[in-house]
Amino acid sequence: MTTYNKMIFEVSQPGRIGVDLPTSDVDPVTLTDKFPSHLLRDSEAELPEVSELQLMRHYTALSNKNYGVDSGFYPLGSCTMKYNPKVNEDIARLDGISRIHPYQPEETVQGALQLLYELQADLAEITGMDEVSLQPSAGAQGEWTGLMIAKHYHKQNGQNRTKVLVPDSAHGTNPATAAIAGFETVTIPSNEAGLVDLAELKQHVNEETAALMLTNPNTLGLFEKDIVEIAQVVHEAGGLLYYDGANANAILGRTTPGKMGFDIVHLNLHKTFTTPHGGGGPGAGPVGVTKELAPYLPIPRVEKNGDQYTLNTSEKLSIGRVKGYYGNFGILARAYTYIRTMGPDGLYQVSESAVLHANYLKKRLEPYYATPYPQVCKHEFVLSGSKQKKLGVRTLDIAKRLLDFGYHPPTIYFPLNVEEGLMIEPTETETKETLDAFADTMIAIAKEVENDPQMVLNAPHTTVIGRLDETKASRKPILRYTKED
Amino acid sequence: MTKTIKFTIKHEWIVPLTDNRARIGITDFAQQELGDIVYVENAEVDDKVNAGDSLGVIESVKAASDFYAPISGTIVKVNESLEDEPEKINSDPYEAGWLVEIEFTDPSELEQLLDEAAYQNLIAEGEE
Amino acid sequence: MTARFRYLPDTIEDQQAMLDFLKMDSLDDLYADLPKSIRLTEPLTIPAALPESLLVKKMHQLAGRNINANQYSYFLGAGTYDHFIPSVVNHVISRSEFYTAYTPYQPEISQGELQAIFEFQTMVCELTGMDVANSSMYDGFTAVAEAAALAVTSTKRPKVIVAETVHPETRAILATNAEGLEYTVNTAERTGDITSLTCLAEQTDEQTAAIIVQYPNFLGSIEDLAEIKKIAQDNGALFIVSANPLALAVLQAPGKLGADIVVGDMQPLGIPMSFGGPHCGYFAATKKLMRKIPGRIVGQSNDADGKRGFTLALQAREQHIRRERASSNICSNQALNALASAVCMSALGKKGIQQMAKLNIEKADYLANQLREKGFPIHNQSAFFNEFVVELPVSTKDANQALFEAGFIGGFDLSGIYSLDTHMLIAVTEQRTKEEIDQFVAVLGALS
Fold it and tell me: Could you say which of A60, A399, A429 has the minimum Cβ distance to residue C9?
């Protein structure tokens, strides 16, 4: 099956169809009578014409050329590729979840509003925040929502704060979001231990500071142990502390961003709370805030009055709307189902297993790969391919070689402050046997680099396609199918 | 009036063509660091810039880097052939891969730039 | 004895073996670097874990407290529609090779996803008449805001003009975005059911980055894109059209009427309503704007043997490379929903999509005619697609209550938005039968 290489447009034949729509039971309309002729199509949209079986064969063949968490180990750092529970999928597809309209009367969607209300409360508890909005569609939108809240808050207090501080190890989204929210980014260098340098931070924090954006554990998988002092420094200068929840899978039930002193938090439900990545989305990026910032949360807010759940759209200080309707409800229903499956004890075990797995794997690999940050890590860790680079093999080559053994490679060349970085996040849902097998493979590759580097340099050898010419794809882009004559 | 090539610490080169006109590009070192260049978002003719202002962005597959004006002036010509063949910057950074031509008013700005020896030292230091 | 969970495979022995290897005494040692002052000392106060059997029962009960489109017949649209979704859609997107995959950063093991998205991009280009499309955005609303941001940054002009007939939530989201990027949003008023061209022409000037209209607009009517394009062109502004992709099966492609950017939501094609999300924004543009489009784009390339393959292309535009210089911060796309709509479009095909669009037109037309016959004024003067506005003798709220009692979810209440206080926005999709429509008319006819 993996040799299939047809486009759906190439299996198409005029006259075939994959649905049977009902014939019209009302009076026919002649389009040219109803619409001005220049607003009617003058040529048909060339969609494919296939039978239902042809369609299924096509997409099944494509799925066979794709790798998901259900296919095998996916130690992709900072992405938290844990198991996506099947019951969550079933729940999200119930008619009472998937076939309800966002504008139908509140009285007819009390179950949906209850789910949202309870999920807000659960996430507030998990993050140690006072109030949560489930609106943002993804982490990046959550970040932007959070920074817009900071912007409004400072403005309301008559302060013109224009700068957002971001550590140099941060994901590119942080500075990009700051720019979109109208802030200037100031980059704070990390110290040798991979943590925020307090002295540097103090130098950059001042009356212009709107917020510091931080992940904790940070992108190197290390816990910012000076977090209390960091919070103090920022707060004393009148700034806010923003928690990027990308790495929340490490801390469930152990601590909360609220305890650490954060004012604004976003979570990625598609990471910590098992909603599937879907090949790139949809996700969900709820935002939590302290009581003081709650009036600025986006509208509508889900509230409870007596026995009734309601939508409130009239908060005066709110930053406004950030997304259509009430967030990615179908995703939120999955996360809700997961949290109900695990309960407090389960979530606690999730994090400690995730952290145990990361440390175990790290220690197994330490003799073979450079570990720039040897201390205890949290749910993920970063290796450097610097030893291998000296032998002429790059981290990219190691990643490609892993494909031959049936693994998804780790995140590579991130964070930017690690040379030839390999970022590994095993997650809690993998068995010890899997971790061991992966470690054995990584060790075997390290030996190959020494003994048979060509094997690694030319990898992958077993995939349906070799390394693609990415330069060509960006220099002379072909971004759609065009029929050859 | 020096006609020789000068460099910036951000890896641009500039060669005066006449008393008030010069050609600008990025150095061989810079193109190597960027890797295969796929696109140039170049300045536009008549843009007025100060020394140090961004002139545009050079994109490779995995990076996007600004390039900056070594001196102040007005852009009078851009290398339009880069639209279709950005790879010229990789293959011939000092000739066919030039980026813009600038008309300048203050030749003394040129004096503040690095000469070839100083630029080579800069690169050598960076690699240590 | 600690409770065991089915998603957590570590046995006591596994844990002990790993701790031994790490030379640690307990799992708490892994958290030794957490300052004492920030540690939680009590368990989280969230509800206790439920076994799957009980959880499923509870979730069915909760879902049962929502009225759904299998129980009632929906005449409600306003941006989200009850359309038919072929069974194949759910079967394809339920293949876990698709839905449990991450973003296709490793093309060698992601060819399925990449090709499916490449095909999706092609279908979006076909419907919109544009040169390039991205791999999808959060939703149609935020896609408009992204388009406006692109216009402002690429034209370096500080203002966009949005038609009053654009969805109110789109306009609200645009306002929030504009505050971040610090540009101005002006609204061009409507005359009746469509944008006032006079008003639009008066407001548009050389400071205008873009004109934004919706097609069909929020009131269901078809704006004359050709006339609006002239105004944009005269002032050097970009022309942004937010379009319903199903309507584009029969309506002229915005690209052929001069649009620079076409955005919208694929929800009508294969994506369940799901209380408003997740849906799937799309974003298409002219070739000229190709390198400024936000979000992921899949491109075709080949490997060393010349074999055709697909990979993420033009990544230098994106936030993970441009960081603070990026013009959008979007990281993800709605890949799985883009796949769903691609499957739906493939099932419908070139002819089916036209047939479906036409059913919508005919049923909406039939309902409007029936209402007219009963003496209800229809507000739309221009041609409409599957939605229109009717004036009622009572408030929309009261009318909807009567409809609800008869098994209908009535239309959208326009009071408070356009000072159309007794006006209802009604959507009629191919899902509505003549019988349902006749009953609907009968209920409204009994009001006064």
Answer: A429
B126 lies in some domain: no
Identify all chain C residues contacting B62, using CB atoms and an 8 Å cutoff: 315-316, 321
Length of chain A, please? Answer: 485
Cβ contact, residue pair C325, B64, below 8 Å: yes
Sites in chain A below the pLDDT cut of 50: 1
What is the Cα–Cα distance from C186 to B42, expressed in whole angstroms?
A: 32
Among B34, B39, B82, the strongest candidate for a mutation testing the C interface, having the largest count of C CBs within 10 A, is B39
**Which CATH number fits the domain that encloses residue B100?**
2.40.50.100
By residue range, what is the domain housing residue B94?
6-105
pLDDT for the residue numbered A166: 95
Domains annotated for chain C, with CATH where assigned, are 73-84+350-445 (3.90.1150.10), 87-344 (3.40.640.10)
The predicted model scores a pTM of: 0.96
Q: What is the pLDDT of residues C425-447, one digit of tens each?
A: 999 999 999 999 999 999 999 99
Rounded-to-integer distance, Cα A348 and Cα A370, Å: 31
CA–CA min distance B28, chain A (Å): 19
Amino acid letter, A373: Y
pLDDT at A485: 64
Q: How far, in whole angstroms, is CA C349 from its chain's centroid?
A: 21
Q: What is the DSSP pairing of strand C281-285 with strand C132-133?
A: antiparallel
Nearest CA in chain C to A137: C138
Q: What is the pLDDT of residue C348?
A: 98
What residues are paired with C188 via a beta bridge?
A: C163
pLDDT of residue A417: 81
CB neighbours of residue A106 within 10 Å: 12
Chosen for mutation from A33, A63, A76 (greatest number of chain C CBs closer than 10 Å) is: A63
What residues in chain C have per-residue pLDDT under 50?
1
Query: According to the model, what pLDDT value does residue C1 have?
Result: 39
Quick one: pLDDT at residue A1?
43
Using an 8 Å Cβ cutoff, are A5 and C306 in contact?
A: no
Please give, rounded to a whole number of angstroms, the shortest distance from the CA of C328 to a CA of chain B. Answer: 15
Contact A465, C108 (CB under 8 A): yes
Summarised one tens digit per residue, pLDDT across range B3-44 is 689 999 999 999 999 999 999 999 999 999 888 999 999 999
Q: Is the peptide bond before A415 cis (omega within 30 degrees of 0)?
A: yes
CA angle C303, C306, C310 (to 5 degrees): 50
> In chain A, what are the domains?
8-64 (no CATH), 87-341 (3.40.640.10), 350-470 (3.90.1150.10)
| B112, part of any domain | no
User: Which residues of A fall within a CB distance of 8 Å from C183?
Assistant: none
B42 touches B62 (CB < 8 A)? no
**CA distances in angstroms from C354 to A8, B101, C121, C131, C344, listed in the order given:** 19, 54, 19, 22, 13
Mean pLDDT over the full length of chain A = 96
Interface of A with C in 347-406 (CB under 8 A): 347-350, 352-353, 355-357, 359-360, 363-364, 375-376, 378, 399-400, 403
What's the total number of domains in chain B? 1
Dihedral sign for Cα A217, A222, A226, A232, please. negative
Query: Closest Cα to residue A164, out of A209, A132, A228, A198?
Result: A209
Alpha-carbon distance values, A190 to A184, A206, A240, A265, A416 (Å): 19, 19, 20, 22, 11
What is the gyration radius of the CA atoms in chain C, in angstroms?
A: 25
Which stretches of A189-261 are assigned E, i.e. beta strand? 209-214, 240-245
pLDDT digits (tens, 9 = 90+) for B56-115: 999 988 788 899 999 999 999 999 999 999 999 999 999 999 999 999 989 999 999 999
* List of chain C residues whose C-beta atoms are within 8 Å of the C-beta of residue A323: 138-139, 141-142, 173, 277
Half-sphere CA count of A452, side-chain side, radius 13 A: 8
